Amino acid sequence: MNKITLILGGARSGKSSYALSLAKRYKKVAFIATCQGLDKEMRQRIELHKETRPKHWETFEEPRELTKLLVKMGNSFDCIVIDCLTLLVSNLILSANSQKQIIDKVQESLLILNKKKARIILVSNEVGLGLVPANKLGRKFRDIAGKVNQIVASRVNEVLFIVAGLPLNIKGKIG
Questions:
Q1: For residues 147 and 124, is the Cβ–Cβ distance under 8 A?
Q2: Alpha carbon of residue 94 to chain centroid
Q3: Measuring CA to CA, how many Å separate 97 from each of 64, 100, 135?
Q4: Of 2, 26, 36, 49, which residue is the catalytic one?
Q5: How far apart are CA 143 and CA 128, in angstroms?
Q6: Rounded to whole angstroms, how far apart are CA atoms 3 and 100?
Q7: Is 49 a catalytic residue?
Q8: DSSP 3-state helix, strand, coil percentages of the chain (rounded to 5)?
Q9: Average pLDDT over residues 67-94
Q10: CATH number, position 51
């Protein structure tokens, strides 16, 4: 099995920056972005994020069909970064997928990732440290994202928790 790392942390904790620092060790990197630029401010954020990545990396923007993209990509990359699982979950919820459908899609993606020769780096928000959301949709998102993080963490080699840009080793060996 290849090495798969899950990087968890809160919003603006440095998760993505840490993921990029790990991926920069590789020559042929695929960056899979799950974010959608639905408004001007988000499109500006996406552009700023693009500027932080090396120009020779190949970027794929895929908000919902991660498994299909992973199959299509084959084994042509040394490293694959997926940023982020929580936005993927959000996109799937807003596309009327049930919790079971979302978990099934994530598990399908994990099966494909486990067959890849590449180093895999997954980024996700830790949603279990905040307040209980005030509305039903927020609670649904928190519940599904939390379950997805638990499933992914149980099936990867390494889990890191980022706090103020610093990695805390939760599972496996950092590297």
A1: no
A2: 17
A3: 10, 8, 18
A4: 49
A5: 9
A6: 26
A7: yes
A8: 45, 20, 35
A9: 96
A10: 3.40.50.300
Six token digits for residue 156: 């990867």
- Identity of the residue numbered 138: G
> What is residue 175's predicted lDDT score, i.e. its pLDDT?
57
User: SS3 for 82?
Assistant: strand
> CA angle, 16 as apex, 11 and 22 as ends, to 5°?
145
Residue range(s) defining the domain that contains residue 94: 4-171
pLDDT of residue 45: 84
In a 13 Å sphere around the CA of 38, the CA atoms on its Cβ side amount to: 7
pLDDT tens for residues 17-56?
Answer: 999 999 999 999 999 999 887 789 988 887 888 888 999 9
| CA distance linking residue 142 with residue 152, whole number of Å | 15
Pairing relationship of beta strands 58-61 and 79-83 according to DSSP bridges = unpaired
Structure tokens at 141: 């998102």
pLDDT digits (tens, 9 = 90+) for 101-147: 999 999 999 999 999 999 999 999 999 888 899 999 999 999 999 99
Task: List 61's β-bridge partners, or say none.
Answer: 33
In this prediction the pTM is: 0.94
| Domain count within the chain | 1
Question: What confidence tens digit (pLDDT) does each residue in 51-70 have?
Answer: 889 999 999 999 999 999 99
Contact 117, 132 (CB under 8 A): no
Exposure of 156 in the CB half-sphere (CA atoms within 13 A) = 30
